[in-house]
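quick one before i forget lol
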Amino acid sequence: MPAPARGPLILLAVDGMEWSVATPLLNAGRLPNLASLMARGSFGYLETMSPTYSPVVWTTIATGKPPGEHGIKHFIYTEGGATRYYSSGHRATKAVWNILSDYGLTVHVLGWWMTFPAEAINGLMVAQTNTTGVLDDPKRALWKGSLLRGVEGQVSPVARQTEVMDILDAAEAGFDSLARSIFDGAIDAPKTPFTKLMWDQSRWAFRADAVYTQVAERLLEERQPFDLLTFYLGGPDVASHRFWRYAHPKDFFFPPSPEEVAAFGHVIDDYYVHLDRVLGDVLRLAPGNATIMIVSDHGFHTVNPKQEFKVEDAPENWNSGNHLDEPPGVFIAAGPMIRDATPGDSLSLPFSAGVLGAVGSVYDVLPTLLAIKDVPVGRDMRGKVLTDVVDAAWLERFPVRHVKTHDDQAFETARRARIKEAADQAERLEQLKSLGYIQ
């Protein structure tokens, strides 16, 4: 029997969103949709975990379990002397989309880490393949959340693959125009070899976000009932890796030139403003009884302050922003299933990130989602339900229930069948090197 649900839940999975970036933009009135959510909901820091590699943390968020249990420990693993990529088949435990599907709920999952090959769920899954495919220079990109025509296993059900690929083509065709609307002058600004590299290293993430946003908007426009819609946005993480020093030149021994600061110092801010517009579009299209949740896997800060930043540097030294020491991420939620405000944390502008408290941790996201949907929480999950966040009347009507585990033999059989390599393995390894994640 389907579990009772008080309206759908929309989860924006925003990689690398950082409160210290969002706060001045909130105070300047440049993130009105985010401010609106905060004013009527709950928000704060979301404690993260180690290592803060995207596939590891996002798999923990989706499963409620640490990497030693869910099985995704890095981007890659070594077997028989060969370096291979983790795939969805290596995830050893059910994720939120499996659990909700088991309870008859409709789930749409777009671009989540380690979802390739796509699983059969009760809804649409569009996996990310992390492949360059058509690029000649492997240093140019790691398409976090991207798609590629001709690769099987990216869309489930397969009947919707052509539709999704048409959206991909349209997003690519319109990307330059979109980019100019997002970034004030940065696209056409004169570039040194290094700033050109930084842009080439970021373009794929912005383009991938456009694809997943457009698929999400298509689903919302269809007006078909759903219980959970989640889509991943990787642009803030990549922009922060690449353009942090232009936004914070005083942090560096070898700061960029004033001309470079003028051209690229606003790239990160511009992208946050763009994401606020995306949020506004989602709010406009979403059912009136939808609950909105925004989660980031970690925050960001300065790294490599003494680096000169040259193209010939090792790829791990191209980053001027990073997160490997576990800076906390962002949690924001509002809607019928959320308390009006976390006690003591109601929004008042001007707002300082220094007064924020921790709402919970990445381990708590899945138990909280399950409680919102009145689905039992696994006793084998590491986190807890954020009872200070979820609507008290709902929890009184539907108290949190537990089961020993949601995992079963049917899942184990299906996931073993998916253990296969994603496309363009050699190129993807080079791209991970370009982000400094592997040596």
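fyi Residues 131-143, 421-426 have pLDDT under 50 and may be disordered.
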